[in-house]
Protein 1
Amino acid sequence: MTETLPTGTQTAQSADTLELLGLVAQLELVAFARLASDAALAPTLAQRLELTRFAATSVERRDRVLARVAELGGDPEAVLGSFAHVLDDFDARTAPSTWWERLLTAYVGYGVADDFCRHAATSLDEQSRVLVLDVLGDVGHTDLAVAELDVARADDEVLVSRLALWGRRLVGEALGVVQNLLATRPGLARLAAAADGAQGGDGTARLFGELTAQHTRRMGRLGLTA
Amino acid sequence: MTETLPTGTQTAQSADTLELLGLVAQLELVAFARLASDAALAPTLAQRLELTRFAATSVERRDRVLARVAELGGDPEAVLGSFAHVLDDFDARTAPSTWWERLLTAYVGYGVADDFCRHAATSLDEQSRVLVLDVLGDVGHTDLAVAELDVARADDEVLVSRLALWGRRLVGEALGVVQNLLATRPGLARLAAAADGAQGGDGTARLFGELTAQHTRRMGRLGLTA
């Protein structure tokens, strides 16, 4: 038996889906710009080439998300454009001053935003959910960051402590971005709350615990204390 | 009957091929950086998205060239890296001050370098030649530049004359890059001379006539006087 939702409900749900897809597309667009800058500053040619490949992947991923927006009847540019400044504050507050800080900002800071999207995506229709989870999969940043941090660790214990501190600052700012999104985007708040409920949580209580746990795990993979 | 070249000749030819492939790969790497900057500065979101797509294409094209380098027994990073600064002077002398100048720099300035590579590629083995000609195909810049210049023309005749002047400056600087390459890279000079010879020319006499003609045609497509 096929469940038929009232038309109003379907529309509201679809609007919420478009909101999340817009955020994911914007994160990929921002990722492109950041990866392109990282590539320009990479200390070795091998890293530079690799970072341009990640940038290219972010374009392809963004366009897959925008194609889904169009399939659902949304306007890709409007949906993406509504999140144009979502990371402006975060970027302004966390301008990295070294190559290591850049890597960590990309891996840790943006990781939190990705985790939030993955969490909220559990409330989407299956096709959109699979797409978001696939698009937000790791593009190889982990390997690059882990390899670089290994070099740092062998070299300079003070640098490692400073990066651990940097990571704590990043996660604070990134959680602030998520709080701001929940406060200003009712569609995202509904998806996040529904995802929390589906996983046995209440409101978005479970969400922040999950984001913090993911962050700790991520820092751990880099050998840094969260 | 299969013609067998002395081993020394084969090696020299292969070294020349690697030199040209390295230049093409470097031009694509530089194109990525430029397209990424253009994307960041694009006046509309639609243009920004399109420019990131061109940037992604340049990554894929560069990697196809580097794969061919590896097939021919070359070291991709060394071959590419030997051209690391090939456009530094050109970029420093032609820093665009407006969005229109940026577009023209990309389309006209880099177009000359691409034309040079296409010319020299006629002397390569078939697989490398086909690859280079395919990789240096237009990625849609023409359409973007033509559309933008149409807007400029409707708007501002003074701007159009200034851009025509800018185009003349660009081609002068770009031909300087080619002359420098011919003077400092014997492999490229040999390929260019062989291509000239194959087309009934003498030395590289035909090359500069061809580059200038292509430039004039390109400016004409934009409605600008070369």
Note: The domain at 12-221 of chain A is CATH 1.20.1260.10 (Ferritin).
Protein 2
Amino acid sequence: MAEQDAAETWLPSLMTETPQEGFDLAISMARRAVKTTQPDVDTLKLLRPTYAADATDLIQVSGVAATWFATIAAANEYWRD
Amino acid sequence: MAEQDAAETWLPSLMTETPQEGFDLAISMARRAVKTTQPDVDTLKLLRPTYAADATDLIQVSGVAATWFATIAAANEYWRD
Amino acid sequence: MAEQDAAETWLPSLMTETPQEGFDLAISMARRAVKTTQPDVDTLKLLRPTYAADATDLIQVSGVAATWFATIAAANEYWRD
Amino acid sequence: MAEQDAAETWLPSLMTETPQEGFDLAISMARRAVKTTQPDVDTLKLLRPTYAADATDLIQVSGVAATWFATIAAANEYWRD
Amino acid sequence: MAEQDAAETWLPSLMTETPQEGFDLAISMARRAVKTTQPDVDTLKLLRPTYAADATDLIQVSGVAATWFATIAAANEYWRD
Amino acid sequence: MAEQDAAETWLPSLMTETPQEGFDLAISMARRAVKTTQPDVDTLKLLRPTYAADATDLIQVSGVAATWFATIAAANEYWRD
């Protein structure tokens, strides 16, 4: 990760007000893990047309989001209250 | 995600009356995660004949749904009462 | 999903008498998720010779069943009593 | 699944004496899920040389076993006593 | 599995002193599941150059280890004390 | 793993101060599992251009990180306090 990214606080908490915000956090954590591995935004932009038009990749993206979301939902006790 | 989609409340809660509604919510969350990555509905329609007639993709879809469902089921305490 | 399928109650509960029934329910939920994505039974029948004779697909099927089963087992408190 | 297999009680319980027995049960449940999808033993024997000499398949087999084992371990409260 | 392997007690417990030992146990359980499927060590040695120089396989190996580790960590209550 | 690596204490605890540190630990555990399988750093460097410019691999990396993170988050009780 680029140094200035590493110093940045991007994940202060797993707590969100609603499940939908939890879903959005899951998406952003999934993307952050990709960016941690490939920090070069231009490369990521080049890759977008490939996976965004590939059914297998899109299905896999959903599975990855589901795994991040599972942790966020447990953290928020499933927003039961 | 298109701006007006982002403002829309599509996930007010993880709670459902029955496991079957929980299953349906899992399917819709799985699809939403795909749409969050590929908002263009025409592209998604173009892809449908590919994955809907591909055994490996269909098996993967079921695995993704299972991961979303696991979280929804835990949220609803497995509809035990 | 075809309208009459959607109205049908196929998942009244996650509770089963035995782990083996829980295993069978996991298999049927896994298959239901496929059918929700590809409702056309003829297409599914056409695909069967492909995945049922493909080692990678069969291994993936088992992994998918394991994920569905994990939720059903937790729902039934692992049939400990 | 062949009718006489379906009637057979092969999974009376998830409880095992030791983690190693739990590991063995996970392997057999993983294989059972494959057999539920492909009951023809000859076909499975034909497939063996393929996956048993394929690194990607063997790694995937381990991941599948891990998912089955996770449920069995939780059922047995991790054999802590 | 070769008979003498089956009789051998290789997994007396999931308990480890430290997370690092838990990580090592996860790696060995992951490898054991592979060996249960392919007991022939020569075949496994032949495969090593393939997966050990394949990015996709190496990423998959890490995911498999993570699944085994998740169970071991839960068994040890995350070594919180 | 090289002997001197094996003796090194790299994972004293799963506890971290913040979710972000937990995310970083998940990334490092994911990489450690790869290094345990392929200790040769030069080989890993050779592989980097492949997976770091491959959408499918990058998505899979995120899924693997999510699985490691799930365990670390549970260990830290989701940093709720």
Note: Chains A and C do not touch (no CB pair under 8 Å).
